[in-house]
Amino acid sequence: MKKRNIARAILLVAFAAFVIHEFTDDTPDPNNKFLKNKVVFSGHVLSTKVSGNHAFGVMLLQVDSSNVESFTDTLKKGIYPYKIKDGKAELYVRVHDIDKGDVVKVISDSLAYYYVNKHEKLVGDLGVITYNGDIEFAKENSILSNNSGIYQGRS
């Protein structure tokens, strides 16, 4: 009986190790090489729209400073996590704990965005968006349009 319990415990530990290994992939996304483009900008949050996928959403910023006038590049697979156009920027990231008026800074080369919320400095991960559900949400809720200089969607 004791040997059987030890064998079960060993199998349980082995199974848990396998599950943890399979579902915690620390391999860098090869698409993120496209974010090494020296884009840096910051601004104040005008609005956010949150999806049902782990607080992923669209954040609209009034750009205060940027080293590029506009950025609307496209990728063959996935989408960039930001657009900049006509003094506005959109971020397609996790938008939890971010409110209207908060200050956000994006440093693309560092694969991060930084924000101050209620006097607390926080960091979020920046990456190429490849999950189809997030891509569709970003497209459906985008205010900046790639096809024209006209803002679309909510005010």
TrEMBL record:
Q: Residue span of the signal peptide, if any?
A: 1-19
Is Signal tagged as a keyword? yes
Keywords from UniProt, A to Z, are:
Signal
- Entry keyword Signal: yes
Name-wise, this protein is DUF5666 domain-containing protein
Can you name the source organism?
Answer: Mucilaginibacter pedocola
